């Protein structure tokens, strides 16, 4: 593979795919440096972070159904392709949390 540095001025952003092995350089400024990681996964992939915990239920209930699904409030049924069910909550869909 190729190794390169993404040297950018403050306020810049680097966008890369999940195939990229990456790491941040040493923060020598003495100031806080923030980062934001946004990811989107196929339905059959379970994200490392549980997005359910990051957005209050009251707010999620106000979102469109597709946004709720992208946050993880939907179970994935792969049984038709020989797989199984993932992203379950209490042996059912996490969407039940929005209905309670």
From TrEMBL:
Coiled coil (residue ranges): none
Protein name: Mitomycin antibiotic biosynthesis protein
Top-level taxonomic group: Bacteria
GO molecular function annotations of the record: 2-oxoglutarate-dependent dioxygenase activity
Organism: Hyphomonas adhaerens
